[in-house]
Amino acid sequence: MIKVTIDGRDIEVKEETTILNAARELGIKIPTLCYSEFLEPYAVCRICLCEVVRGKRSRLVTACNYPLRDASVSILTNSARVRNLRKLNLELLLAQAPAAKIVQDLAAEYGVTKTRFPIKNPDEKCILCGLCVQVCENLVGAGAIGFSSRGSKREVSTPWGVEPETCILCGACAHFCPTGHIVMTEEADERILHSELTLGPNAAISIPFRQAIPNVPRIDVEHCIHFKTGGCELCSKVCPKDCIDYQMKDEIEDIDVGAIVVATGFQDFDPTPLKQYGYGKYANVLSSIEFEQMNNAASPTGGAIVLENGEEPRSVAILHCIGSRDENNHKYCSRVCCMYALKFAHLIKEKTTAEVYQLYIDMRAFGKGYEEFYHRLLEEGVNVIRGKGAEIAPIGGKFGEEGLLVRCEDTLISKFREIPVDMVVLCTALEARDDSADLARKLNISKGADGWFIEAHPKLAPVSTTTDGVFLAGVCQGPKDIPDAVAQGTAAAGQAMKLMTVGELFLDAAYAAITDEICSGCRICNGLCPYNAISFLEDKKVSEVNAAMCKACGTCAAACPSGAITARHFTDDQIYAQIEAIFA
Amino acid sequence: MPYRANMMVCAGTGCVSNHSLELKQALEEEIQKRGLTDEVQVVPTGCNGFCGAGPIVVVQPDGIFYQLLKVKDIPYLVEEHLLKGRPVPRLMYVPPEEKTPIPKMNDIGFFKGQMLVALRNRGMIDPENIDDYIARDGYRSLAKVLTTMTPDEVIGVIKASGLRGRGGGGFPTGIKWESCKKAEGDIKYVICNADEGDPGAFMDRSIIEGDPHSVLEGMAIGAYAIGVSQGYIYVRIEYPLAIQRFRIALKQARDYGLLGDNIFGTGFSFDVDIRRGAGAFVCGESTALMASVEGRPGEPRAKYIHTVEHGLWNRPTCLNNVETWATVPVIILRGVEWFTSIGTGDVSQNPWGGSKGTKVFSLAGKINNTGLVEVPMGITLREMIYDVGGGIPKGRKFKAVQTGGPSGGFLPTELLDLQVDYEQLTEAGSMMGSGGMVVMDEDNCMVDMAKYFLTFTQDESCGKCTPCREGTLQMLEILKRICEGKGVPEDIQLLEDLSHFVIDASLCALGGSAPNPVLTSLRYFRDEYITHIRDKKCPAHICRDLNVYTIDPELCLVKGHGCGVCRRQCPDSAIVGEKNQVHNIDQELCKKCGVCLDVCKFDAVKVA
Ligand SMILES: Cc1cc2nc3c(=O)[nH]c(=O)nc-3n(C[C@H](O)[C@H](O)[C@H](O)COP(=O)(O)OP(=O)(O)OC[C@H]3O[C@@H](n4cnc5c(N)ncnc54)[C@H](O)[C@@H]3O)c2cc1C
Ligand SMILES: Cc1cc2nc3c(=O)[nH]c(=O)nc-3n(C[C@H](O)[C@H](O)[C@H](O)COP(=O)(O)O)c2cc1C
Ligand code: SF4
Ligand code: SF4
Ligand code: FES
Questions:
Q1: Does A209 have pLDDT greater than 80?
Q2: How confident is the model at residue A187 (pLDDT cuts 50, 70, 90)?
Q3: Is there a domain that residue A92 lies in?
Q4: For residue A70, how far is its CA from the centre of ligand 5 (angstroms)?
């Protein structure tokens, strides 16, 4: 540690600390233009010049990279001499890069509002601070940009002025550029991709969403610079607890369990094929889940209800039963839409001044307090129209930027109506997940024609399945709202706990058994068992029945060509004995 | 068998471009024809420095100096001098404004005032023959160092000698070696800076082309003292002959076991590689040079860490100039006492206490004897210019001398008695630099000269740091403005402010010294600026935009009879007049090209 004086104030710092860092510790601001704490000081803007006074001798040094080694020095960061040099420097920069706001602002701070030197190019922003080049070379490791020409012709460019293959489009240069000379632009896309609505610009390392569990950041390896070039590692440089581990990998773990609760839920019906609604084409036609997400306080809009152009809608139409109660799609009622549609209407009324139109087939407000909620909304002034939305057309502009027209038949007044709105929300159906068949096979449970999993008995065993130890909860069993899903989940958990508290299984005494000596290893039984209870032992080359899974149906015993399988308690001898007893 | 006479034909770049190689061939043929092959030897040598008198042949051992030779002079020269023993006066040097030729090289003013240390073998050896070098005590110092001295003793000698860097900075060489030796690291390097980017300078090139082994020997001695086994020579690509000479020298030294493993059986190993530089001026700066050797852009780097600790590839590196390295063997051989007897000041306490030994300068500009000279430190500018340099041509008046290359300052007549010494030059606003010396006479405009040199440095700025890049650019704009007659009184203060800013704030010494010509011209020739700005006049009539050309009617008519040459030659048809009548210049049309002034044979055109 050494003691130095900065602007008359004493400070003790570690040797080799730069003047800039020492001054920052004291809260003394030294202007910088080419410095970043994440890079080796390049020290070219020279705006940070300070005086180092040793005895009677004073020397000018750049604060950003001058290491303090000597205890007897005193540093002047803002002496008259220093200020004059900075002023002249800024005046020169104002002539060279007049459009750089950072220079204008700093110059104004020093009372320099105009330059005495001729301006080369009034639109020039680049001050040649080198941050972009440094970051690309030393942090990102791509080395895609550099300086070309020397002297006053120096400029930032890519090699030979062509788009470099080494550029990974990470945008780090634009991020570090203090002047806005480098910016990232996106090519305008004809289609507005809705899945992107929820995605704001994000760092490659972030907490995926607010309620994520565990609530810690994770690295998006597809966009992380480190995984592209091996460079950067900025996050590990700033993490005070050394938590960043670039070696961490996705792992597949095998977990032994005694019970499984299936709560895989649903997926949203994709309304794109229903061309009449223009989903995916008109910017302001949203699916219900998108609208739900927009309302989330953690959404890119911060929970505000806005149109694509950022303005508040003047009117919103909510169309029920998109994909539900529909002969061509799902015949069933999705059960939750009516109520969440009313919730949406309430939110719109609460957050905006927009008119709300509900277009419904039937208003199904069946739960506790739901009907009351419906009436409350009517009082709030929500327009309810009985009639399914038939078509959505743009009012102006190809993509409905200037408004949308909702066409429907109002069945209560038997009139065809056209309602101009700014935004449309489609209440899309809940549908079974695409992978539900796969899961059903894996767990040996059954599912209905509409894809929902089937419970063992609708009244007596509503959370059980035909496979012991596998239980159902939530929408995967059929559409339901949160209270119902939670109730069912609690029940399923109870069932699973029942198994666990006992700790051991009571087996039925009757189950099939294979005699190793007789089994030929043909495996015919393996595929036939409806309960997946038979597996083949590779080492012994014989099949084996898992007694816990066997339901003693006898299919295997009947099919075995070698007669190696006996159903215990139903052996041939026992059956003959019973027959004999009957006739005896 | 020794030869009766040695014909030392200068094969320096200057003489070669004046056909000295054809001369050499003609000499050889003539000598063979006369049957003298066994008695007379023809030796191609490095540059003699007196390039203005080239091609040069010196007949040794008598030291008879022949200049401005042509192939047709050879038969006569061989017959007279070599056969009949009669030197040929008409081929000898005659001092300007004198009549009697001077036969002996060492009696010629240009050579008389010189003292050859770095150039000790100038004109005496064939640079492509290591035996010539060895015959003149070459590699004796290396042998002495390796067999009788410890590294610390070597450093002690160099420190005590007061030798300071000849590349520009004047940093004491011994101290540099010592810090590099002390720096932590197993692998260290020595580098020879042969970038020589100053326009018109050719000191280093001459040493390499004329005596490459002296540099190699110096480097080997330094390497031993510091503890280095690898050296690099950084030569600019525009010096193909120098590169060639180094290649040959390296091979010969390796063949003789003077480079490579286990030199003289002492266990000390050292070898040298050549790196070619792309030829930017700033690449001569130490950190830029190292970046360039590493294969990165040749730009200076901003660090308060010295290259002796973190240099090439971040390892301790000792960089010295060609001339510095070439001087080292002589100091070892002839001793500290001899070396410190030459020059100024006292270095026994402090190596900064004076300037010792000799320095090579290239004399250029308005001076009779242009060329390369090596003079003892402490020589006055007057001695340099009038004795060695032979004075100003055509009897014109001396105005200023710039020392130290393009960023050196201009020193006026009042300072002619200033001694050539690191501190005295710096104090006067100039510097020793690498040894450029440009003389200016009364026909030079100092504003124009400042503009001229700043144009060079501004163009050579790498552009990395703002002060140098933007500062020199704007200074140049102001100077141009003044020369065009558009200067305003505030410009002088602004120029001064900018100069100080660029010097104080630049990252490397290029920007740190580039304003010197401007500052010194403002300091010693301020009235010229004022005349340009206030009166819109250039006293030397160099700044054409400020000139007014007129025709003296009397001279035109009486002497020239209105010959009309000017009218016909004027590219802008600005001159009117009938044949045999007085001619006149239409000032509206005159573009101030000055052609009329040049073509009028009767001095009737006047400029004001
Ligand atoms: C737009 C909209 C608004 C709604 N608003 C309301 C409301 O206001 N109030 C209300 O009560 N209800 C509302 N609902 C209904 C509510 O969303 C559902 O009732 C609830 O989400 C059902 O919960 P769940 O756990 O069964 O299924 P989900 O919420 O779908 O959860 C299933 C989870 O399982 C995961 N998963 C799927 N397959 C696997 C697998 N193989 N392995 C591991 N994990 C898997 C999924 O990623 C998902 O995280 C709304 C529904 C929609 C579409
Ligand atoms: C812009 C610039 C150009 C330079 N060019 C040269 C050069 O051409 N040759 C040289 O020897 N030194 C040159 N130098 C000086 C070197 O940086 C360095 O000080 C020198 O080579 C060290 O050797 P010395 O101590 O033997 O002089 C230059 C310096 C600057 C700032
Ligand atoms: S583009 Fe931006 S970051 Fe790059 S040098 Fe110019 S101002 Fe600096
Ligand atoms: S002073 Fe000039 S040459 Fe040196 S780093 Fe700055 S811009 Fe480059
Ligand atoms: S911030 Fe120090 S030189 Fe730019």
A1: no
A2: low
A3: no
A4: 21
Please judge whether B505 and A89 are an interchain contact, meaning their C-beta atoms are less than 8 angstroms apart: yes
Chain A residues with CB-CB distance to B under 8 A? 41-47, 49, 60-62, 65-67, 84-85, 88-89, 92-93, 95-96, 116-118, 127-128, 130, 146-147, 149-154
Delineate the domains of chain B, giving CATH numbers in brackets.
5-109 (3.40.30.10), 130-341 (3.40.50.11540), 355-441 (3.10.20.600), 446-535 (1.20.1440.230), 547-607 (3.30.70.20)
- Verify that A530 and A489 share a domain, yes or no: no
Q: Examine residue A112 and state whether it is found in any structural domain, yes or no.
A: no
Q: Are B308 and B317 in contact (CB under 8 A)?
A: yes
Distance (Å) from the alpha carbon of A135 to chain B's nearest alpha carbon: 16
Helices B322-340 and B151-161, packing angle to 10 deg: 80
pLDDT(A200) > 60: no
3-state DSSP of A428-484: ECEECCCCHHHHHHHHCCCECCCCCECCCECCCECCECCCCCEEECHHHHCCCCHHH
Nearest to B497 among A88, A127, A146 (CB): A88
Between residues B304 and B506, which one has the greater pLDDT? B506
Residue B14 has pLDDT above 90, yes or no: no
Is the same domain home to A342 and A421? yes
DSSP-assigned states of every residue in B515-584: THHHHHHHHH-HHHHHIIIII---TTS-SGGG--EEE-HHIIIIIT-S--HHHHH-TT--EE--TTS--E
Tell the burial category of B138 from Cβ atoms under 10 Å away from its Cβ (0-12, 13-18, 19+): buried
Question: What is the pLDDT, as a whole number, of residue A202?
Answer: 61
User: Rounded to an integer, what distance in angstroms lies between the CA atom of residue B135 and that of residue B140?
Assistant: 10
Which among A110, A232, A127 is positioned nearest to A178, based on CA atoms?
Answer: A127
Query: What confidence tens digit (pLDDT) does each residue in B37-79 have?
Result: 999 999 999 889 898 888 999 998 889 999 999 999 999 999 9
The verdict on A444 and A363 lying in the same domain is no
Whole-angstrom Cα distance, residue A432 to residue A323? 13
Q: What phi, psi does A373 have (nearest 5°)?
A: -65, -40
Q: Domain boundary at A463, A484, A502, which? A: A502
CA distance A354 to A313: 6
CA distances from B228 to A403, B53, B231, B323 (A): 79, 42, 8, 20
Do A418 and A471 lie in one domain? The reply is no
**Nearest alpha carbon to residue B293 among B396, B191, B173:** B191
Give the pLDDT of residue B12.
87
Number of domains in chain A: 5
pTM of whole model > 0.80? no
Spacing, Cα B508 to ligand 2 middle (Å): 11
The model's confidence at residue A458, banded by pLDDT at 50, 70 and 90, is very high
Structure tokens belonging to residue A233: 């590692």
Containing structural domain, residue A444: 436-502
